[in-house]
Design goal:
Layout lengths: L1 H12 L3 H13 L2 H7 L3 H23 L12 H9 L5 H19 L12 H42 L9 H17 L4 E8 L2 H8 L1 H18 L5 E6 L2 E7 L3 H16 L3 E4 L2 E3 L3 E7 L7 H17 L5 E3 L4
Parallel strand pairs: 6-7
Antiparallel strand pairs: 1-3, 1-6, 2-3, 4-5
Bound molecules: guanosine-5'-triphosphate.
EC number: 2.7.7.65
Keywords: Membrane, Transmembrane, Transmembrane helix
Organism: Thalassotalea insulae
Length: about 325
């Protein structure tokens, strides 16, 4: 676009058709990277763009006008632009383009063009000089804004990775402990009810053995998404490891936790899991429940109790709920 504006300036203001036509040629060549990008040749597109820009700047400074116009200051666009547009691993391209831009800048700065195609007045040279500096400044602001955005996105991605289980997309073990310790402390302080469920898939090894590990994964993902959709926003559902999951329930007493666990058991047992286009399977889970009491008020003991109840549920035939608290 900037090249197009200069073309119009050469044609309409400075009225030099030859320079305007050469510049129009360059303007059209700037469209090639768009085509290459559409053809998924992103790296080639970027390289083309920067090489073309550097040749164009050299032609402007040493053919159209002289270095008094400051056109060669456009070489400052190359290092920042290349560092933003190329991928992190494209170090060679970034360094090579930056070195080339620096050398060309030095060449233009130290090579006066005594016979430019356009004989510019001092005022016009000054005007072009200012336009070049302004474009450079705008580019620096754009580049820095995009860099900050990129850093923010990366940080967000890292935060998500650090707290999420990669397979199921639910919270991971670390995040569960971090959040639940706080939630439990608050429940104790405010004398509110609090329960945990440990959910373990039944005979999951058989699912893997009969249908393959990928089908096992699909099963974990689909059941987790079913549970996640069913629970309240304030409940925290996380993967403890393997095929064992945990659910912490604020403001939920033992009876309410058992009722929820039984509902989940039923939902899961009746939920057809699609493991490929024409195979559906059903799986079941066993659930151990433990709730906050005066004698049982720390997370480790609550989880231990829920775990014991879970193994009793397994012993009693699976696909069922047992609570550690006597009701
Ligand atoms: N597909 C898949 N399998 C997993 C994953 N994590 C753990 N498993 C499998 O889960 C199975 C758990 O087996 P076991 O501990 O014997 O338990 P189970 O077969 O569910 O039997 P019970 O718990 O007694 O009902 C093992 O075969 C693990 O390989 C996973 O992320 N994906």
């Amino acid at each position: 676009m900037i090249s197009g504006i200069y073309t119009l300036n050469y044609l309409l203001v400075l009225q030099h058709t030859t320079v305007a036509m050469i510049n129009l040629g360059f303007t059209l060549l700037y469209l090639v990277p768009l085509y290459l990008n559409a053809k998924h040749q992103a790296k080639l597109a970027k390289t083309w763009l920067f090489i073309l820009l550097m040749v164009h700047i050299a032609i402007c400074t040493n053919l159209y006008v002289s270095n008094l116009s400051g056109f060669h200051l456009y070489y400052f666009l190359v290092p920042t632009g290349a560092f933003l547009l190329f991928n992190l691993e494209d170090k060679t391209e970034k360094i090579a383009l930056s070195v080339l831009a620096s050398l060309l800048y030095l060449y233009c700065e130290n090579t006066p063009n005594n016979t430019p195609l356009l004989q510019l007045s001092e005022q016009m040279n000054h005007l072009i000089y200012q336009s070049v500096v302004l474009v450079n400044m705008i580019e620096v602001v754009i580049v820095l804004t995009l860099f900050v955005k990129q850093i923010e996105n990366n940080e967000q991605q890292l935060r998500t990775q650090a707290t999420t289980d990669a397979l199921t997309g639910i919270a991971n073990r670390r995040y569960f402990f971090q959040q639940t310790e706080q939630a439990l402390a608050q429940a104790k302080l405010q004398q509110r009810s609090f329960s945990v469920l440990i959910i373990d898939f039944d005979l999951f090894k058989q699912i893997n053995d009969n249908y393959g590990h990928f089908s096992g994964d699909a099963c974990l993902k689909q059941v987790c998404s079913l549970i996640k959709d069913y629970i309240r926003q304030q409940d925290l559902f996380a993967r403890l490891g393997g095929e064992e999951f945990v659910l912490s329930l604020v403001d939920t007493n033992n009876l309410e936790a058992i009722l929820l666990a039984e509902k989940l058991c039923q939902l899961i047992a009746n939920y057809p899991i699609l493991i490929d286009e024409d195979t559906q399977i059903n799986c079941t889970v066993s659930i151990g429940v433990a709730s906050l009491t005066k004698d049982n008020d720390n997370l480790d003991t609550l989880l231990n109790q829920a775990d014991k109840a879970l193994y009793q549920a397994k012993d009693q035939g699976r696909n069922r709920v047992l609570s550690a608290n006597a009701n």
